[in-house]
Amino acid sequence: MKFYWRVVMVNRFWQTYRTVLFCRLFANYFALILIPVIVAAVLTNFFVVRLIEHDAERLNNTIMQHFSEQTDDTFVSLERDMVNMLSTASLKNFPGSSGDPADLTQHYEWIHSLMQQMNKLDSEDLVYKSFLYFASEDLVIDGNTYNNKDEYFREQYLIKDTDMPSYFANFTGKKSMVFTKPHTVFERPPFTRDIVSTHSNTAMLMSYPFNNSNPEVYLVVNLDLDKLRGRLGIQEKWVTDTMLVNSSGSVLISNGSSELQPDSFAAMIRMNPEQTLFLNENKKALSFTKSRFNDTWHYVSMIDLPTLMKPASTIRTMTFVLLGMFIIVGGLVSYYLSRKLYNPIREIKTGLESQHPHLDDAPGSHSGNEFDTIKRFSHLLISKNKELTQTVNGMFPIVQEQFIVRVLFGQYRDSLSIEYYAKEIAFPYKPVSSATVLCIDIQYYSPFAEQLSETSKSFMLAELKEKIRKLSPAMIWVCQTRSEQLSCVLHHEENGLCDLMETANVIKLLLEHPYYKASIGIGETIHSVAALHQSYNHAHSMLHYKSLHSGAEICSEQRVWKERSSGDSFLSSQEVNRIFNRYKAGDYKNLLQSVFDLLDAGMRSNANADQMKNLGTDVLNTWARAIESEQNDFDISVYSELFASINRCVTWEEMRRTFREIHGVLFRTTVAPDRKQQFAEILDYIRAHYNEELSIEHFAEQMNMSAGHFSRMFKEEVGEKYVEYIAKYRISKAKQFLLETDMKIDDIAGQIGYWGRNSFIRNFRRYEGITPAKYRTIHQS
Predict the structure, then answer these.
(1) pLDDT at 87 over 50
(2) Same domain for 59 and 162?
(3) Burial status of residue 726 (CB atoms within 10 A of its CB: 0-12, 13-18, 19 or more)
(4) What is the pLDDT of residues 133-177, one digit of tens each?
(5) pTM, full prediction
(6) 474 and 494 in contact (C-beta within 8 Å)?
(7) Residue 95 DSSP symbol
(8) How far apart are CA 377 and CA 520, in angstroms?
(9) Which UniProt keywords are given for this protein, alphabetically ordered (predicted)?
């Protein structure tokens, strides 16, 4: 019995706890989601909806203002034409019909002149018919005819009988742009009784003389009310009617059938400001704009408020619907989660008999912040946009540099084409000026040729070009003519230095660098831009006399004749026979020593690089023929790489090291150890010493290979280039430091083996697409 009551108490507890779970879940949902939703709904109704209402009212006012200005401009134009017509016609001197033939002739001439002027008024779009009504004479003149008054209004302008008294009552006193009441006009062919159509017209009257209370003539312009109503209408779906109303509330012209109480409207326009919405006694919204043409006129629009405020009403309705949906969905989700959480707890706790569990609510998972995501993405777009802008801005100097390259290559040789293309790219130059071209050849030393990436080399050349330009921006044009060659055009007129050799020596100082050897070829001086290709070709030919000494050097015509060597660039027949004899005798050591002796002799005779490379190629060719005379187990690709390694030599020391490596490849006697094991040990060494200087020559010498041969073998075994592997491994370590430590960028660069901050940032951006600082910001946020 005791056990039974204990089970009953546990069941009651868990039934109560299920309700608690539901309340807690719904409270969390309410705090995290419903409160922001309710706040958003309130803000939407009090601010966004109100803003939409103000925008709708402002839009209506803008349309009304534009409409009133257009309509007023129409009336102003018509008034101006009427005044001009009356002023031009000079009706004051209009001759009467005295019966004298001379006066009669002049009388008819004046009538025809007036008819021609009336035709101009009839051409207006709103004018149905205009005529001159003479008060003191029985005469009416329009654009087509003239006649006495009875005959004219019986045949030419037939007015409905009921409208005639009010219409003719207007021809008294002074009139200045007075509108008559609407009247009906019958349209029929002359001298017939067949009515073709009817028109509802209103007339504008102006008397002449203008300031006379007893005018002699009235100018009548009959307006087609149907066209005027069409002009008066506003093509907006919330405007039900548009009217022209005077200050007393009388409707002059209406586009629809709405009624307006004159007294109440006159009171409203006195109490309400212009261009505001207000309700009349019929609960209809009105808006009025005062006419610029006539101070007593007002343009009134009847507004359908539900249509005008439909966007605001739609948003308000959708806000409440969404709020209700959030409440319902939150309740359902809370109920479902409470059941899912309660069922496992109930199954676990039914087995317990002696104690109640102490339950801890598990923390809920939080969704990501969409604003932070958009902000990070927008920052990335801004960064990309800045990079794109910098790229586009950088294209203009590149185009100018390419123009200089084309001139140097001789693609533009005549002055006319150079002038045309220079004008196209806004490139300033003097067609006739003394100039000299310097060709700068860059050769990277073997320790850095493989280690430096193409990007790093490009940055070095860009920095070098900028340094040369800073010497004298007005006198030096700098461009990159080949992948590792720069060309400088020195203009002597703007040269701030003393002479050509002094300028070359200053540039030589800039070219001193531990990574590469620079050779400067000096061309001949020319006296026009069109002849720059001649100086360039001469400067390029001077580079064939560069030496194998390290450091920057100048190759000019004077130095070539002074230091030209008379040594031979090829092996003699005796030396060839000596090589074959030593090979057959197995004297491999002296084979290498004989090459060193040739290099020493070339160094003493100051032989140039081309001579020694030709000599080295001849030696390698002789070695290859000697080996092939006894064995034929070398692939042609191996020989191609060996010949290429000689051509890549920059200094005497590199020539010695290259022949030592070639000698080890061709004449080695020991069996090479297992290649995979060797490369596995090299990879282990790289991972352990990634922050140290890892020279490719060091590993190549260990495996008795050339640097190029080792590079190819490394890619075959590992799957990527030696330089790429080290760079990627260092970047992976850098990412660990960025995310796991607070080290500075400079410290991380030194920790992973980079020489400086800039090279580290360039390589990190190359592989990751962003800078290290941005990488840390994105992944730590």
Answers:
(1) yes
(2) no
(3) middle
(4) 888 888 888 878 888 888 888 877 888 888 888 888 888 888 877
(5) 0.41
(6) yes
(7) P
(8) 49
(9) DNA-binding, Membrane, Transcription, Transcription regulation, Transmembrane, Transmembrane helix
